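Hi team,

Filling in the usual template for the complex we talked about on Friday. All components are listed, including any nucleic acid strands or ligand strings, so the model treats them as one assembly.

SUBMITTER: L.P.
PURPOSE: interface mapping
COMPONENTS: two
RESIDUES: 586
SEQUENCES:
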Amino acid sequence: MNIVVCIKRVPETSESEIKVDESGKDIIKTRLTFDINESDNYALEEAILIKEKLGGTVTAISCGSPDNDATLRMAIAKGADTAIRIDTADLGEEVQPQIDSFKIAQLLKTAISKLEFDIILTGCMAKDDGYSQVGQMVAELLGIPHAALVTEIKIDAPKARAKRELEAGLLEVLDITLPALFTIQTGINEPRYASLIAIRRAAAKEIKILKWNELGMQDTELRATIESLFPPPIGKRAEILQGTTDETATKLTNIVKEKGLI
Amino acid sequence: MKNVFALVEHRQDKIRDISYELLTKGQELATLYGGELTALLLGNELTKFIDSLKPYAHRIMIVEDAKLKDFNAESYQIVLSNILKQEQDFLLLMGHTASGMDLGASLSVELGASIATDCTGIEIENDNIIAIRQMYEGKLLAKVNLNIKAKSIITIREGSFPPQVSNLSAKVLDFTSPLTAEPSYRRFVEYIEAPLGEVDITKSDIIIGIGRGIKEKENLLLVEELAKTIGGIVGCSRPIVDAGWLPKDRQVGSSGKTVKPKLYIAIGISGAFQHISGMKGAETIIAINKDPNAPIFSEADYGIVDDLFKVVPILKNKLTAMKA
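RESULT (copied from the run log):
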């Protein structure tokens, strides 16, 4: 099985303060830490697990600036055989920050169509924008079937049986003909950590760089663009209990007691 | 003139609530555009659904085919693209659900349409279609312009538009299914229901919900002691189940359980919308989180901004003393 896994490097935002930059369309990224997108990490692990079971290769691919190389090297350290980065710098200063899912999908499709593959894996959602679009678009552009939100894959070539997660804990079982694309839901496996030796070895590995214009793409038209970013309106807000830890715990205990909550 | 379409979502012989939300918003937009709202209903044995949909749309387009019995992104896409390729100017609304996520983006590629996903609002500004949606885990909102105005798809987050019963009386139209054979690449096999766990958290009056902030599996003990003290049960957000620290039946949220306890104490939970949608019906919500900007504080009644590892042991002692 030759497996391609698409990964995205995203800022850690759940425990950081997020501010809008001067353009009003992007965030200030200088103080943020970046890492592989959570569900992409599960997709990478799934790719490596399939390779370990059935043989073949894993190619990790990402779109963006040279900062992405660190994420791709980590993918190699964990078990990917090769890594490709599509450099988007040449898209120009106006287009690049606004690059949409469809443009990313076009870039990935063009690069992936030059490879031999049986399975393409992506995460089911990027944590930064939350769109959940790119995987399904890549599949459509390549003319292959896909399944989204996948929590189990069993390969029985030329088919695969997959489970995908629906609402309220319900699962759907489906059969799909390979080559196919799966967008992977978190929790499908236990992503590994790379060993220090593997990380050191991966540092010396070459990452193949593809320039977007070398991919034969000229069209820079975007289908969806961010007009503005802004903080959510302050709606209902909890009564925040003030004081030392001991004082807030006392206040909360009193509230619980007075309101008969326990 | 733009026509608005809404894809009716149904599963296991029931129309899903999101359908009425889409139709409610769709009618508002169709009125604004001077066009019509069409409810798209794909499946087999669909007659039973018609009466409940009639008041919500101008037209119901029915595609009856045994091959459409269960949702399948491949066959749904063939049908929807056949319908929409005949339209000069359309806006299609779908749920940002397991079905809508599977189908929407690939359909947009086939149709050459703009798409915005997981939206909580839609505004028409100077003839532009602007979708409102969360980014960065709910910390910011974005206005997204759909640049291909005449071909647009928007998927809507569940619970964004409360359904309002309307008094329309939809005209029912049949659209001949373009499917000539069973889908060739992807086949529905079966549904697997969520297994019944050892404990049913939906029956508990007091739930302590824990999230990523708990950091290590060993720290669960701390929360379990607190739960024991107050006669509650421990539930959790998705990352705890993903890590294998608690079984799936303890997960509160859109892909887990929906709970409505008297008291919900969220500890180390930032408040992703998937989790909020499962616990916002609790009578009283208390949140403990070290990040003052965590979205959970917009849902909670009372909050403590502090390190949970400092607060929880003290809180446990005080509650024990109170109960004594």
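MY TAKE: Residues 38-54 of chain A form the longest helix (17 residues). The two ends of chain A are 56 Å apart (CA to CA).

Thanks, L.
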